[in-house]
Amino acid sequence: MALELRVFIIDAFTAKAFGGNPAAVVLLPASHSLNDSALQQIASELNQPMTAFLQPSGADYTLQWFNARTKGRVLMLDLPVTTLHSPVGALEISRRDELLTLRLPSSLSEEVHGEKYQKVLQAFMGGRLPTTATVSFHYAQAVNDLVVLIEGIDEAVLRACSLTQEFAAASQALGVRAVTFAVPGTDYDSLARVFHAGAVPDEDQVTGSAHTIIAPLFHKRFGKSTLRALQCSERGGELLLELSDDHVLVSGTAVTVLEGKLTV
């Protein structure tokens, strides 16, 4: 017997359609026979950067997420839920008017030094780094990410940098999950670009996990406990970051751009 599932496509961390982080959301019934292989097939069919599967669990929901090829990472959902029980633990979501807030563990980082980090910087900047700029490298072991903090460049310079073969090789040599370039801004407290490291690195549109490193780092560096952040990707994304004990409250708006039914 065919199973009909409600499906949404949601753009998160944006107030307008076709911006922010696009994701599909599939609502599963409380009882179903779909295994991980079937869920992966659905995610591949929907072909979004991320597909979330929500299943009722008492007053809350359980959450699994996949990209078009493999299980993926945490994303923001525009749904009236309070707690999502996911493979990485319980994720708390709250809503105030149009603002959705995800409570994530803070990721503390340590400053690191070495030629391999300089190679990543040089490959990304491509000669655009002014001599007056100050650069430091920060490694967050909990999420295996590197943040390159650059003081002394503006948004235009950050956006002008692009992926190169040299950057791919240098980032892969680090053995990290992702490389984030973070810059103090003027209209925004933080500007960032985030790249998944590897043989074929790709740029993430909006990355909550990267900002769980940026928030405590900027607090330590600049004394700010609340940040307005802009991720300078092609689609762009706006986030509000607030430190709360050992967590970061990552907030943003989301737009539902498609709603329909999937028959499997």
UniProtKB/TrEMBL annotation:
<keyword id="KW-0413">Isomerase</keyword>
<comment type="similarity">
    <text>Belongs to the PhzF family.</text>
</comment>
<dbReference type="GO" id="GO:0016853">
    <property type="term" value="F:isomerase activity"/>
</dbReference>
<protein>
    <submittedName>
        <fullName>Diaminopimelate epimerase-like protein</fullName>
    </submittedName>
</protein>
<dbReference type="InterPro" id="IPR003719">
    <property type="entry name" value="Phenazine_PhzF-like"/>
</dbReference>
<dbReference type="GO" id="GO:0005737">
    <property type="term" value="C:cytoplasm"/>
</dbReference>
<dbReference type="Pfam" id="PF02567">
    <property type="entry name" value="PhzC-PhzF"/>
</dbReference>
